[in-house]
Design a protein that fits this description.
- With 364 residues, the protein is α/β, with parallel strands linked by helices.
- It has one domain: TIM Barrel, CATH 3.20.20.
- Helices cover 39% and strands 14% of the residues.
- It contains 15 helices and twelve strands.
- The protein has helices at residues 18-22, 74-84, 105-122, 141-154, 178-187, 210-216, 218-231, 234-237, 253-266, 279-286, 295-299, 301-304, 325-333, 340-354, 360-363; strands at residues 6-11, 32-36, 40-45, 48-54, 88-92, 130-132, 134-135, 159-160, 191-194, 243-246, 287-291, 309-311.
- The strands form three sheets. The protein has a six-stranded parallel sheet. It has a three-stranded parallel sheet with strand order 1-5-6.
- The longest helix has 18 residues, at 105-122.
- The radius of gyration is 20 Å and the shape is globular.
- The protein starts with 5 loop residues before the first strand and ends with a helix.
- Residues 58-64 have low confidence and may be disordered.
C-alpha cells in the first residue's frame, strides 16, 4: 500500500463576499473583502490594502498542466489531491488570514464566526479528508475562549491564533493567555499559528536580496512565538496544549531548544518564571512544525523527535509542492535509513492523530 499522506498546510478560497455580507453596516469599514485588479487579487480590510496576490496563484478551472483546480470547489480539489497523492489536508483560510488585523473586537468576532460557520459547513461531508482550522478572535481573550469552545462544539479539531500578536494584544509570554491554552489542554485541540498572520511585515527587507531575506525570515515569527510561550511559562502551566507552526520550516527546532536550555541553566539567577521542565523538553512535548523541503528534519528525526514534525504541501500556493509532491517526498527520504513506521509518522500518522482525523484508509 502507498503512503498515507497528510498535508498540514493547505488553503481554501472563501467566497469573496463572505465577510462583507456578515458585517453589519456600522462595521463595514472592518469587513475583509477582495478586489480583483488587472493582474492581482487585493485582500482589503475596508479600504486598506493588506495583501496583493497575483491572479495566477491558483484558481478553479483551466487547462494548464500545473493549474490548481480546487482552491474553492471540493470536487476539483479532490481530483488534484488524488493526482498529487495527498490523502488529507489541514485547511487554512485565504482572505481570513488577515482577520487578526481587524482593530475592532466586535467586528473581529463577527468576521471569525462568519468564516468558522462557512468553513465547517463547506467541508462537512468530507471530514475524512479535510481538517478545517477555525479562526480565533483575539482582541478580547474572553471572545477567544468562547469562540474556541463554540468551534469545538461544531466539530473543529484545530484552531488558529496569529503567529505575531498585533499591538494592544498580550504577548505570548503573558498569563493572560492561560485560559486559551488551558482549553486547548482540556479538549486536546491543537492551536495553529500560520506564518504571516498578525503583526507581520512580510516585506520588511528592501533592495538587493529583499525577497530571499523576507521569505527566509518567516521562520523568525515561529521562533519568537515559541520562545515567548516557553519562557513565559504558558506552555509549562498547560502541558497538554499543542502548538503547530505552519510554513515556517522545522529543522531549526532542535537547535533552538538546545539554545534555550543553555540560557536557562547559564543565566538561572535571572530566569523568571522557573519552569518544571527544561525548555527543550517543553518544545519536544508541545511544539509541532509543518515543513515542505527540510530534509534535515528526516535526517535529524531522532534528535528532534518524530512528534515535532509533520509534512505539508501548501496547496494551492505556487511556492508549494503541487503537482510534484511525490517527487519532493522521495527526495526527503532519499539515502536516509528510516523505518516504515518513522516514514508513516512524518508523512501522515502524527498529523492524523494530532487532528483526530477519522480516515478509513488510515484506519485500514
Amino acid at each position: 500500500m502507498s503512503d498515507f499522506i497528510f498535508s498540514a498546510d493547505s488553503h481554501v478560497r472563501e467566497p469573496y463576499d463572505l465577510f462583507t455580507k456578515a458585517m453589519p453596516e456600522h462595521l463595514q469599514q472592518y469587513a475583509i473583502n477582495a478586489v480583483k485588479q488587472e493582474k492581482s487579487i487585493d485582500t482589503m480590510i475596508g479600504d486598506t490594502l493588506c495583501i496583493r496576490v497575483p491572479l495566477d496563484w491558483g484558481k478553479d478551472g483551466g487547462q494548464v498542466t500545473d493549474e490548481r483546480y480546487g482552491s474553492n470547489k471540493i470536487d476539483l480539489r479532490i481530483i488534484d489531491m488524488d493526482r498529487d497523492g495527498i490523502d488529507a489536508e489541514l485547511i487554512f483560510p485565504s482572505l481570513g488570514l488577515v482577520n487578526y488585523l481587524i482593530e475592532d473586537a466586535e467586528a473581529e468576532l463577527i468576521s471569525a464566526r462568519a468564516y468558522n460557520d462557512w468553513c465547517i459547513n463547506h467541508f462537512r461531508e468530507h471530514l475524512d479528508r479535510f481538517v478545517p482550522a477555525a479562526i480565533m478572535p483575539v482582541r478580547d481573550l474572553g471572545n477567544t475562549v468562547s469562540e474556541m469552545q463554540r468551534a469545538i462544539d461544531m466539530g473543529y479539531t484545530a484552531v488558529m491564533l496569529p503567529v505575531v500578536p498585533c499591538d494592544g494584544i498580550a504577548l505570548y509570554n503573558m498569563p493572560d493567555w492561560d485560559p486559551v491554552f488551558a482549553l486547548s489542554d482540556k479538549t486536546k485541540t491543537p492551536i495553529i499559528m500560520h506564518t504571516g498572520t498578525g503583526k507581520v511585515n512580510i516585506r520588511a527587507a528592501r533592495g538587493p536580496g529583499g525577497a530571499l531575506i523576507n521569505y527566509t525570515r518567516q521562520m523568525e515569527d515561529a521562533t519568537n512565538a515559541i520562545m515567548y510561550l516557553v519562557g513565559g511559562g504558558v506552555l509549562d502551566r498547560n502541558p497538554g496544549a499543542k502548538v503547530v507552526f505552519a510554513e515556517c520550516g522545522a529543522s531549526w527546532l532542535v537547535g533552538m531548544g538546545e539554545r534555550m536550555d543553555e540560557v536557562y541553566h547559564g543565566h538561572e539567577h535571572f530566569i523568571q518564571p522557573k519552569l518544571s521542565r527544561v525548555p527543550s523538553q517543553i518544545v519536544r512535548e508541545q511544539i509541532v512544525c509543518a515543513f515542505q523541503n527540510d530534509k534535515n528534519c528526516v535526517v535529524n528525526r531522532k534528535a528532534m523527535g518524530l512528534e515535532t514534525m509533520i509534512w505539508a504541501s501548501d496547496y494551492p500556493h505556487k511556492e508549494g509542492t503541487f503537482p510534484h509532491s511525490q517527487r519532493v517526498i522521495e527526495e526527503l527520504f532519499k539515502d536516509v535509513d528510516v523505518t516504515p513506521e518513522e516514514r508513516a509518522a512524518i508523512l501522515g500518522g502524527t498529523a492524523a492523530k494530532l487532528f483526530k482525523l477519522k480516515n478509513l484508509r488510515l484506519a485500514a
